[in-house]
């Protein structure tokens, strides 16, 4: 078929290229006519705010794919060869972590909400039914899934797919009750099980199998039988050597079935080789399309075969994750119990501008959140309101309260103020959450203000934040090039940790002046190296080596890192965001520009010191540093934090330095 004919078909059947969460298959949808579902979803959605939002996201995704293809096309055989060496080394390191001694079980309730409703109303048995309404469906039973109806689908589209669909309103009290019953069963097999949600959990059944002399499959069969006896509900299970594989296995024989993957490396590799990447938790729609459309990676096995591309184009942490998936590796240790950092509650409803309805929903959610906090014994100080508009724009607003609370009246009072500031607007989702300052309290214990707590100390911290485009710029901060010229430089024995934020005590800036001369010499040395670098290196590669050397140098001694961070900022040009457009001939110009900026900054800083505009604690931290001057900054301004303390924020195109008061 030629391009003209293909284009004609594309325009006459646009639904074939309309992919949304509604068209993704779930368990029980294997025999569904996918084209019919896509066509109906497309026709029912076209022209809506949701459709427009999906088109916007689709356009952004295509841009990402094109950008990835462009970067991929610029990789030379030599580059890929070097990255393949990285892959080979990481495979050896990851294989050394493979643990086949544990037995993990993932249990997933079958169409949980729908099954609970059917249990409460047996007349629904065998009929297509969905929990939710015309605006949104929470889940659908297996009879409805045969028509293409699924969770997260608007009810009016579901009704078009299945005219006889029965809607049942959501009842979370009922679902929580049955969830608690299932968890009582889970505790008999693993007291420290990990609850993924109301209807799923991960259990380490290694000790149970060993003590009772039973296999993982036998324990799974017994557990499923116990859940059915206790609740009348069915569930599916997967048994494997780690949590990642166990979750994949639990979906294979749904509903009311199980699948056991033997703890044998050869068996695991055979199983994972043909597994579609979308089956893996953590790989969503966007990542799937980028891997498939940009790199041609469709199965987990191909993540290993094309590992050099992954390490060349993604961050190291992402590439490590993809490679571990391709090797069938996952978490096997039970995570430590951590104190809870946040608690939230949200509800989705039909878009509305009715303020009375919005305030009613707000009161409802405030009551639910208060109930959950009291149940968990939690109180908090920071309240966040999240809103989703009719055009699917997400807005988030937060406020810090004077004292900790779990009172629904307090929550509603402050949430109402946040909502009023956003009106009028058409809203379809409200979420209330309290974050950043959640404390565990005993019954009747009063939560004190931060200022009143005897163990509370205010600590000044200096935060350096680097923007995403620098961190992901073709290995920047993640990998060093193994070129002859680079090996002739200092042999760097480790790579910089992949992070976008460094935090150090502000006291570390006091002795900066003693380091300036040393770092100026370092700059000159690196400049000489750059000018005499291997002639075969492209100028952009030489520039990247140069910048990378500075970051590696700054990380070489963690105790003194912040001093070197200041110095290097004056040396990195704003043009560094486009590494392909720079070369060694610009170094002298950059150094001159940096010197002028430092002189101007020093003068401005001294003027503020003289006028008393900068608080003493900031003067102590920066006074000596600015004596010499050290940052190429575009602007600066004063702000006040929640306690009325003045703080100075310095910003630039490539870095942000700020003081913040933290616990």
TrEMBL record:
Signal peptide: none
GO biological process: DNA repair; DNA replication; error-prone translesion synthesis
InterPro entries: DNA/RNA_pol_sf, DNA_pol_Y-fam_lit_finger_sf, DNA_pol_Y-fam_little_finger, DNA_polymerase-Y, DNApol_IV, Rev_trsase/Diguanyl_cyclase, UmuC
Cofactor: Mg(2+)
SUPFAM superfamilies cross-referenced by the UniProt entry: DNA/RNA polymerases (SSF56672), Lesion bypass DNA polymerase (Y-family), little finger domain (SSF100879)
PANTHER family: DNA POLYMERASE KAPPA, DNA REPAIR POLYMERASE UMUC / TRANSFERASE FAMILY MEMBER
Protein name per the record: DNA polymerase kappa
UniProt source species: Thlaspi arvense (Field penny-cress)
Lineage, opening ranks: Eukaryota, Viridiplantae, Streptophyta, Embryophyta, Tracheophyta
